[in-house]
Amino acid sequence: VAEQRRLTGWGRSTATVATVETPASADEVAELLTRAPARGVVPRGLGRAYGDAALNAGGMVIDLRALRAVDYAGLEHDGTIRAEAGASLHAILVESVPRGWFVPVAPGTRQVTIGGAIAADVHGKDHHQAGSFMTHVQELTLATPAGIQVIGPESSLFAATFGGMGLTGVVLEAVLRMLPILSSRVVVDTDRAGDLDGALALMVEGASEHPYAVAWIDCMARGGSLGRAVVTRGRWAVPAELDTTAARDPLAFGPRARLAVPPLMPANFVSRPAALAFNELWFRKAPRERRGQIQSLSAFFHPLDALHGWNAVYGPRGFLQYQMVVPLEADEVLRQVIALLAARRLPSALSVLKRLGAASGGHLSFPVAGWTLAVDVSAGARGLGATLSACDELVAGCGGRVYLVKDARLRSEIVHTMYPRLEEWREIRGACDPDGIFASDQARRLRLVPASAT
Amino acid sequence: MINGLGQPQRLLVVGASSDIAAASVRAIAAAGGVESALLTARDPGALGGLQDELQGAGIATSAASWDATGTPQATAAVVERAWEDGDVDVVLIAVGELPDQAEVEADPALVTSLVQTNLTGPACLALYAAQRLRAQGHGTLVVLSSVAAERPRASNFAYAATKAGLDSFASGLADSLAGDGVQVLVVRPGFVHSKMTAGLDPAPLATTPERVGADIARSVAARRSGPIWSPGAVRVLTSALRHLPRPLYRRVSRGR
């Protein structure tokens, strides 16, 4: 059923109208590709891309959420599942955790689909050890204008699809290697770091013991407190570590969204004073040093999922998430970027710092070995455009990049510098989409695809 | 595309030789992100300064001739040209003339060209642009109206009537495009010190092209649709005047 709808990204900072198709089978997807409109087609899942990556103004958007079947039979043989593109990590975890299996890569929300996780080649808090989503996918079924293809890691189209923002074809299903776990709880160490050096040191030390590490960083603190952070590091708990109640069902998993933000917030609630106060409170309430706290996996991996529709707190103009990575040796640039954000007093509550490991090999895949910082800022914040452009220059200049799935504002010229394999990607993409039917608002804005589909 | 900061990439500015149009383009360009602009004027020679200025800011700028009293074919052609290299994100229509009311009353034939310039031409262009915007599923159309559209006075009713027509046209168009991802901004400035009002006595809350331009740029960035007043206080004043009893209104507005 086709429906003309106004769509936004998760940040709600742009909105365009497209014809939304909701196919119920792989054949229907293939059929839709045969009648792609002049302005092209882009697949969409749960709409967690922050910017305009899953929008296609005046064209077709294929909503894949109805293709959500998952086959768990492989878990007992080789620890794999076969999931359709529209299956969410949430739905998978509800089934797999009680059986003792976790997703191999856990991004900050469970509310992403398999297709979305592939299109963005998502990473988690353990990327420095586990790699990105691509590392764990054995096989991919992709609908392209040339027909339905099953491809593996040896194929260049496979690598072009991870991080390819849905522009290489429509993912139909994937075979994913899961991670065995003995409990659904995480043993968490929490430390407060008074400045950036302290935070970076904490994230590096003890990494082998604690595969998951993340820092909630205060990007408004200046001077001696620049980059102050609350660092949490975690590892899976074994049943022996759980208290008697929890030990009765060590693999229990029943996450619920406890609170909801009304969808039509009239104004932006993340003002400068509010963000300052929030950051101060967050830092002060954190323990200076706490060891061995047992947390549920949802509290540790997906804290924001407990607040349904939290993206509405930024009001009608929405917000941007600026996520960049700089190589490990360029930690000075990380400091410069944080100093720049702090100096401009951009209202940002709860920014996130993580360490990334080696790149996966996806042409447009975001992770490279280094430090990644993600900052949420309301789209209407004064001076935001100029500040982020200055950050872009710093990041691109040291071999870093901005994450396309978060982006709503990069300039097309700088994407080449940030993603040096862009031309190679375009060739692979062009070969399987000669008529240029795949297009998105982001692809148009950044000229990722040829102009024929604009 | 208009990005997440509300910055458009490509502009079409119709009537770009007007002070308000120039100030609006400068304000939109200053916010960043603009890559190209097509400027039109009856006499494109008058656009040289603005064109050079935008080029200097790294914006690929070209100029075209368009006359509001010309043929619909010429209007369609200028819109077509604007869309030649891809989507246009913001279309700004700032066409109009403010005639001397006494002259119009003395020579009623002048009404014909006034309606052509202030209403027929811009409305026709707005519709051609609206077709494109609707098809591309995004964009903002900015139409310069006037507070005069809300309350005509004895001293300007010929101008006020044409602006009332265009205002009504654009407001209805805004509603018609509401489900198509297209914003229509109907701008109602108060008295603006500009080439057009040179020699006239300023009304209360008089403003400058720069301030109107800044208000337009802000509203475009915020993806606003519908009427805006510039300065904002004009809205309150006009609303109050609209509700005055007629004899009283005549006294208040006399001579303006």
Structural features, described:
- By secondary structure, chain A is an alpha+beta fold.
- In chain A, 27% of the residues lie in helices and 25% in strands.
- Chain A has 15 helices and 21 strands.
- In chain A, the strands form five sheets. Chain A has an eight-stranded antiparallel β-sheet. Chain A has a five-stranded antiparallel β-sheet with strand order 5-6-10-8-9.
- In chain A, helix 11 runs antiparallel to helix 12.
- The longest helix of chain A is centred in the middle third of the chain and has 14 residues.
- The radius of gyration of chain A is 21 Å and the shape is globular.
- The two termini of chain A are 24 Å apart.
- The mean pLDDT of chain A is 94.
- A seven-stranded parallel β-sheet of chain B has the order 3-2-1-4-5-6-7, with helices on both faces.
- The radius of gyration of chain B is 18 Å and the shape is globular.
- The mean pLDDT of chain B is 95.
- Chain B is 46% helix and 16% strand.
- Chain B starts with 9 loop residues before the first strand and ends with a helix.
- Chain B has 256 residues and is an alpha/beta fold.
- At the A-B interface, strand 2, helix 12 and helix 15 of A face loops of B.
